[in-house]
Amino acid sequence: MNGGSEVLLARLSDGLPADAVLTDPDVMSSYAHDMASFCDAGAPAVVVMPRTVEEVQHIMRTATALRVPVVPQGARTGLSGAANASDGCIVLSLIKMDRILEISPVDRIAVVEPGVVNAALSRAVNEHGLYYPPDPSSWEECTIGGNIGTASGGLCCVKYGVTAEYVLGLDVVLADGRLMTTGRRTAKGVAGYDLTRLFVGSEGSLGIVVRAVLALKPEPPAQLALAAEFGSTAAACEAICKIMEGGHVPSLLELMDRTTIKAVNDMAQMGLPDSTEALLLAAFDTADPAADLAAVGELCAASGATDVVPADDHAESELLLQARRLSLTALEAVKGTTMIDDVCVPRSRLADMLDGTARIAEKYGLTIGVCAHAGDGNTHPTVCFDAQDPDESRRARESFDEIMGLGLELGGTITGEHGVGVLKKEWLAREIGPVGIEMQRGIKQTFDPLGILNPGKLF
Amino acid sequence: MNGGSEVLLARLSDGLPADAVLTDPDVMSSYAHDMASFCDAGAPAVVVMPRTVEEVQHIMRTATALRVPVVPQGARTGLSGAANASDGCIVLSLIKMDRILEISPVDRIAVVEPGVVNAALSRAVNEHGLYYPPDPSSWEECTIGGNIGTASGGLCCVKYGVTAEYVLGLDVVLADGRLMTTGRRTAKGVAGYDLTRLFVGSEGSLGIVVRAVLALKPEPPAQLALAAEFGSTAAACEAICKIMEGGHVPSLLELMDRTTIKAVNDMAQMGLPDSTEALLLAAFDTADPAADLAAVGELCAASGATDVVPADDHAESELLLQARRLSLTALEAVKGTTMIDDVCVPRSRLADMLDGTARIAEKYGLTIGVCAHAGDGNTHPTVCFDAQDPDESRRARESFDEIMGLGLELGGTITGEHGVGVLKKEWLAREIGPVGIEMQRGIKQTFDPLGILNPGKLF
Fold first, then answer.
1. What is the mean pLDDT of chain B?
2. Which PANTHER family does this entry report, sorted A to Z (chains A, B) (predicted)?
3. B residues 13-52 closer than 8 Å to A (CB)
4. Of A134, A308, B183, B441, whose CB is crowded by the most CB atoms within 10 A?
5. Are residues A254 and A311 in the same domain?
């Protein structure tokens, strides 16, 4: 340990309980990165786990005084390296601040600390007849603070929108340790610039979220699903367009391509027919879901579905959705390593996105499976490769970039819900251009003049 | 005209058609202010009405070169003075940029210029089976650009949210004339800080919105309404809490207090019984609105409603809602002038807000009618006074401030949907505190280093 670290540890320990300051090298190494592939991570000087707002303020005051970078973390389930440590940094893990402070059925809000796990909040509000929609696939592990930092989405977004739409107000500890409250606990409010929304998706680069007021919905009826099999992705995409154009509001509208179907079949013997090129899953949580499914089933048939299988009950629905839930695990099994892209295009361009991705897979001689939040046009092309094979790894990385380029060409965005982190920094600049980057840097400078908050992320 | 103005006019005219540069004093005077009471307005040097993005860029480059303030305007239906001119400014009216550029039923978006009138957009998208929810009461006149600038709301918000939730992306001309694109035309996207949302509600202080990508919903069934009469506001508020706690999702949930009911009765002979202290209006645009109304009617009765009148059809619903639509006009007729407040509280505190407002009216010897977007907790206490009476005017202004103080005490915000402008500048600082104001000023400085964009508004 060098002298700088000793001073840092001494100063931190001045305002933190002993068990909140972790310096064991193995522990620190396990907190060095999130779940992204191809993202460098440095070695932290210390991992701190505060339990109170005051402790977070102490940490940030110390970091400012000593000019030490701070990397905030939730459960590190992110997929863009936004939570990766930099050398000599303080890793600020919020997982011990995990209290649900309030649930109000009349005001339809919850007030939570950032370390609350998404699923824990979902279950707690369910007990009050309420619903917190955002459901990233890591929902059993990921934290609300992480969801806010990365602006995460999930399967529900096609009907219920993303995390951003559920954050009403925040308490934030700024880089210099001052506490700022943004937003409100009311249903509406327009007092000044929307700083709350500015923090959502800011990946810990503007301040540390220590408390959030979240909007809740009434719990909807359990959803009922159908699966529709198609002989081509073009036919499946035509069905998606017809469903959305027809004014339907599914609670889930997911697509799996042939590669993904095959991977799931290989792993779990789901018995999907080999001729299936695309599987569409639709669900409704309306008052009469069977009627909605019947209408959507007809649109699928009219678009050329080879088979349409509506579930009769909730248990059958869950079985149908199981194939989608297994997709990433199944694709991981193909080659050992996956790189998950997150390109979102206008849903009218979904067919072009899928065609283009198939061409890119062929060009690079790679297996790329696509599952998509199809109703949102949000695709997750997943490159399967052997990380021990340098040439295949290089091709994986190149194809990944080409997929983002294709997304931009089609009027889309490089990230629908996973964020920028370190993985997509160069691509952020391409998407938003030099003027946008200049303004973003200006905002960063306002909140973090010393540049100590999660440096090297975003831009 | 002084020399400075001559130079300004010459430079502006260099890049604008002659009919886009207005200097007639009467015309300029009519463009000097919006519809807010008690807000000073200066005398503009010129009113410009560009028709293209390039013309807006020319105007901003000229303003930057000559350091002349620019006040952007839509239809000037705002209620906080945000569109009021300052002395010697360029009034930049966007009303001639009024084209709907695209409507896509598959992508559920519209792309519009800022001068499109809200009602024109609503009708245009209706023809495609789509719905643009935000419906401020000025919807037949107000523009989308103005709606974005002030983050306006309306009657629909209890179910459909506010303008902010429908703005996906923007083209913005910055203070120095550069063009910046924010956001996206996809359903989801998290690439960098949310600059789109930062512009919504920024009251023209960060840049000039010249194009917007708006999200649309499928057109819902026509709504069916009921009216419930209560002998006390407390009982009406209890019903509101029960309705929301019960998981109902009305498309409208409005409250009128006794003063408002009396004003409407006096003006339009609606024949509401004199004993009615509060009138609650609820509507549903669901698949089975009659069933929803029956359930809500029972909750009203359980809370002590003296009468519950459900409409049988759309025409009857419109008749019931007529009373609410006439409220402001009727309150204006009471004393000749009104001052409309816009305090939003957690809906669980609505009864306290109404009680407190009644106490404030009594304390100042004033008539204050309240109509409220009750489902959102968004109240519009409307102070009726004679503007020719200096003492009554002073009391009106003092009561107005006291109502905002009450809103903050109850955990609310000083503005639910009307914005800050010049009317509530001091109160913005009280609501968000010095750290928040400092950060807001920093953001302003980033976008508008010379301070020429709508100076003197917000903070």
1. 96
2. GLYCOLATE OXIDASE SUBUNIT GLCD
3. none
4. A134
5. yes
Structural domain includes residue A57: no
Q: Over chain A (459 residues), what is each successive 10-residue block's mean pLDDT?
A: 83 98 96 91 97 98 98 97 97 98 98 98 98 95 98 94 97 98 96 98 98 98 96 97 97 97 91 88 96 98 97 92 91 93 97 98 98 97 96 96 97 96 96 97 98 97
Smallest CA–CA distance from B199 into chain A, residue: A193
Number of domains in chain B: 3
The pLDDT assigned to B348 comes to 97
State residue B272's pLDDT score.
Answer: 79
Query: pLDDT at position A450, please?
Result: 98
CA-based nearest residue to B23, from B48, B51, B4: B48
Residue in chain A closest to B346 (alpha carbons) equals: A186
Residues 6+ apart with CB under 8 A from A417: A136, A150, A151, A152, A153, A154, A157, A162, A342, A344, A378, B188, B190
Residue A96 token pair? 């011990």
Chain A contacts in chain B segment 269-288 (CB below 8 A) = 286-288
Note the ipTM here. Answer: 0.97
Residue B294 and residue B152 share a domain: no
Instruction: Give the closest-approach CA distance of A100 to chain B in angstroms.
Output: 19
CB-nearest to B344 from A109, A161, A187 is A187
* Per-residue tokens: B83: 């569109």
Q: How does pLDDT run across B358-383, given as a tens digit for each residue?
A: 999 999 999 999 999 999 999 999 99
| Closest chain A C-alpha to B240 CA, distance in angstroms | 9
CATH classification at residue B71: 3.30.43.10
Question: Are B65 and B167 in the same domain?
Answer: no
- Mention every residue, 6+ apart, whose C-beta is less than 8 A from residue B438: none
- Distance from A3 to chain B by nearest Cα, in Å? 34
Question: Is B247's CB within 8 Å of A129's CB?
Answer: yes
B196 and B242 both lie in a single domain: no
Spatial neighbors of A287 by CB under 8 A, at least 6 apart, are A221, B286, B287, B288
Contact B447 A447 (CB under 8 A): no
Alpha-carbon gap, residue A61 to A65, rounded angstroms: 6
B111-127 pLDDT, tens digit each: 999 999 999 999 999 99
